[in-house]
Amino acid sequence: MSARVALGGAIVIAAASVAAVGCVSPIPNPGAAHVNAASTVYPGTTVEELREGRSLYVAKCAGCHQLYLPSHLAPARWPASVSEMRERAAISEAHEKMISKYLVAAALVGAAGD
Ligand code: HEC
User: Fold this and answer.
1) What pLDDT score was predicted for residue 111?
2) Burial group, residue 54, by CB count within 10 angstroms (0-12, 13-18, 19+)
């Protein structure tokens, strides 16, 4: 009886740690803080645009190197860096712009100590 209880406990702990790893992404999901930050540089930015920018970043920019954290560069330096990577990543200018907006917003929020 006590062995079964101990086994059950181990399974619960294992499941909980898998869930915890799955939830923690180093590439932040855009929220209200990101929309506010982006709007200071790109007026009218929506959370949908930022979500799309994040998806594109994850999908298009991890082929050659690990995804750099938004905090890797100062906010103002991201657009030039993404522009430099555009040909390598074979993305359109529209997609480049969305990835830039996302990274600038996330870097701004990071820089604010969030
Ligand atoms: C075809 C390969 C390839 C793809 C795809 C690619 N990169 Fe890179 N990236 C590189 C290489 C090689 C370097 C390092 C050498 C260099 O900086 O030129 C690099 C460096 C970087 C750096 C570091 C610059 C620094 O100053 O520390 C950033 C940031 C970056 N890439 C962002 C991106 C983004 C954003 C995308 C998607 C739009 C992307 N990369 C897609 C090859 C790629």
Assistant:
1) 75
2) buried
Q: CB neighbours of 102 closer than 8 A, spacing ≥ 6?
A: 30, 34, 38, 49, 50, 52, 53, 54, 56, 57
Quick check: 109 and 33 in contact, CB under 8 A? yes
Residues of the chain below pLDDT 70: 1-25, 113-114
Mutate to test the pocket of ligand 1, among 54, 66, 88, 96 (most ligand atoms within 8 A of CB): 88
- Determine the distance separating the centroid of ligand 1 and the alpha carbon of 70, expressed in angstroms: 13
**What pLDDT was estimated at residue 26?**
86
Q: What is the pLDDT of residue 45?
A: 97
Amino acid at 89: A
Residues 55 and 29: their CA atoms lie apart, in Å, by 9
Say yes or no: CB of residue 99 within 6 Å of ligand 1: yes
Q: Is the dihedral of CA 27, 33, 39, 41 positive or negative?
A: negative
